[in-house]
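Lab notebook: predicted structure, single chain.

Context: the supervisor wants predicted structures on file for every construct in the current expression panel, including those that have not yet been purified. This is the next one on the list. No modifications to the sequence; it matches the entry in the shared construct table.
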Amino acid sequence: MTDYQIDTVIIRERPTKGKFAGGAIGFKMEAAIELIDGVDVRLITPVDIKAAVKKNPIPVPFEETGLKVMQEAAFTTAYAYLMRRHYGVDAEQE
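Prediction complete. Output recorded below exactly as produced.
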């Protein structure tokens, strides 16, 4: 993480049961990431992501970002977290 100067990791929260439940391997990877020293790990729910993007739409179409389709969920999650942090939503909840 230090090679890329990453100080915060945002994880999209997933349900533990039901149609969209995460698998055991995914939860183990999330736990391993959370245990890395010096990295602030935050969870954000899909509802919070949707609300943040609705309030502050992404200003550029995803196709113009140069990212691959498989990166769209990660991009949207990071964007939603940054919008929440910029507008002080996280500070109110903590």
